[in-house]
Design goal:
Alpha-Beta Plaits, 7 strands, two-stranded antiparallel sheet, membrane, 2 domains, transmembrane helix, Rev_trsase/Diguanyl_cyclase, alpha+beta
């Protein structure tokens, strides 16, 4: 399904969910709710079995199973309502609902492992920090108030498991969110679905409490909270849309994109670190002494996080500098042999799109070095690099292999355009280079290879070897000319820029 189809699917599902929200509690509405929910579960199973790659299928199967358990829990509740007339406070439906959370969290963790194999340590530590803070808040506001209220053990334990299940799900999504990997539309859909699940559970727990305290009218605290369950269905649709999206592979395939240390990440880590001292001092009662202690803790946390952020950004800058140095020639700033090899290795063996390689060796460069010194030779190399960069397109690659050898890799360029480019380069390189009052001149011999690849599919290696051989042929034929691989030499081009 294309992007437009996914968008249409989500819009249609949103409309259906809105109607189910309005019709909640009626016989027709409940039947429609069960039918639509069952259809979405079927879609999740079909997509997991038919669209996901076999190696990446397990997380999607776990998600489909979690959604099915939630559907069974809702169905059991509906059956109790119409067959028995009363839904038990704790029952089989809770087993199904609670069983879906660890499955969903496990699916998210498996996605994170696939997206960033061996690179999850930082994400796990940050996610652990935030999760512990969330667990503490859940205990303080959603579990602890109901202990010792005269409920049975089951009636006390089972409701308390829902905040625990939410914390488990939160841990899973945080590991994915904080780990390296591509963050396209499928990933954002997955995050939106999980946020909807967690927000729905939080609202269902909080709204009745606010109503009991007289802060909300009853129709919001109880009626609206009961209807919020329909939003889980839309969360399921968001996950199905992520699997239907053409870019779904990003969720289970290793990516190289590393998330930057966003200020929001540091802010939330700081708030998490302040959770424990804030709640501890709140229990002790806020007074001058506790407020001073809390302020000191906040300042220490801010200083530590600022130092941490500074260190991470310095490390990022150092890493970026080292990466640049590893990929570029220090004299000319052009890409080096490693980058050229990587680009050649990624050329597809398909014959649909031509590719041209121009292998260039300077003529007379040794004489310039011997007569004027290496500093003059460096000036010539820099000038040649600038002239080569000026004549290529944005998507072409100019690389220096070392010494006085350069290579131009031009995807989408055929033989005729490659020959025109070679003649332009011969003319530009032949222009004099000013150096301390001297006019330094060099020429070039260029080998051209424009090919669709060899029979072994090694398109990049084939075209580079052909261009190299053609360049040596040009040298042997008198220099200052180009040779197209497999043909005779081109003419010597005078030092003028072609029109």
């Amino acid at each position: 399904m294309g992007t437009r189809g996914v968008r249409t699917f989500l819009l249609a599902t949103a409309g259906v969910v809105a109607m189910l929200f309005a019709g909640y509690g009626t016989g027709t509405g409940d039947i429609a709710y069960a039918v639509v929910y069952l259809a979405l579960c079927g879609l999740a199973w079909w997509a997991a079995l038919r669209l996901a790659r076999p190696a990446d299928r397990r997380p999607w199967l776990l998600i489909a199973l979690a959604q099915t358990l939630w559907f069974l829990g809702d169905t059991i509740e509906i059956l109790y309502t119409y067959l028995v007339g009363e839904v038990p406070s704790v029952g089989l439906a809770d087993v199904c609902w609670l069983g879906g959370y660890p499955l969903m969290a496990l699916a998210l963790l498996q996605m994170a492992v696939r997206r960033a194999p061996g690179r999850l340590r930082g994400a796990v530590l940050d996610a652990g920090t935030l999760t512990v803070a969330a667990a503490l808040l859940g205990w303080e506001f959603l579990i602890s108030p109901f202990l010792g209220q005269g409920y049975s053990v089951i009636e006390t334990v089972v409701p308390a498991l829902y905040p625990v299940a939410d914390v488990v799900l939160l841990a899973g999504v945080l590991v994915v969110a904080l780990s390296p990997g591509t963050r396209g539309t499928p990933t954002r859909l997955l995050f939106a679905a999980t946020a909807l699940y967690l927000g729905n559970d939080l609202a269902i727990n909080i709204l009745p409490l606010l109503t009991d305290q007289g802060l909300l009218p009853k129709w919001i605290g109880y009626d609206a909270a009961a209807r919020l369950g329909t939003l889980v269905m839309f969360g399921n649709a968001l996950i199905s849309a992520a699997l239907l999206h053409p870019g779904r592979a990003e969720l289970t395939r290793a990516g190289h994109q590393v998330p930057k240390l966003h200020p929001a990440r540091v802010l939330f880590l700081g708030l998490a670190l302040m959770t424990t001292p804030t709640l501890t001092l709140a229990h002790a009662g806020f007074n001058a002494r506790t407020l001073v202690a809390l302020g000191a803790a906040a300042l220490c946390t801010m200083f530590v996080l600022t130092r941490f952020t500074t260190a991470v950004r310095e490390q990022d800058r150092t890493q970026a500098r080292l990466t640049y140095q590893a990929q570029h020639d220090p004299l000319t700033g052009l890409s080096n042999r490693a980058v050229l090899g990587e680009r050649l290795a990624h050329l597809r063996p398909s014959t649909d799109v031509p590719v041209a390689v121009l292998y260039l060796d300077l003529d007379g460069f040794k004489e310039v070095n011997d007569r004027y010194g290496h500093e003059a030779g460096d000036s010539v190399l820099v000038a040649v690099a600038q002239r080569l960069s000026a004549v290529v397109r944005a998507g072409d690659l100019v690389a220096r292999l070392g010494g006085d050898e350069f290579v131009l890799l031009c995807p989408g360029v055929g033989e005729a355009d490659a020959v025109w480019l070679a003649e332009r380069i011969l003319a530009d390189v032949a222009l004099p280079v000013e150096f301390r009052g001297h006019h330094l001149t060099v020429g070039a011999s260029i080998g051209i290879a424009a090919t669709a690849g060899g029979p072994d599919g090694d398109r990049g290696g084939t075209v580079l070897r052909s261009a190299d051989a053609a360049m040596y042929q040009a040298k042997q034929l008198g220099r200052g000319r180009w040779v197209l691989a497999g043909t005779e030499a081109g003419p010597i081009v005078p030092a003028s820029v072609p029109a």
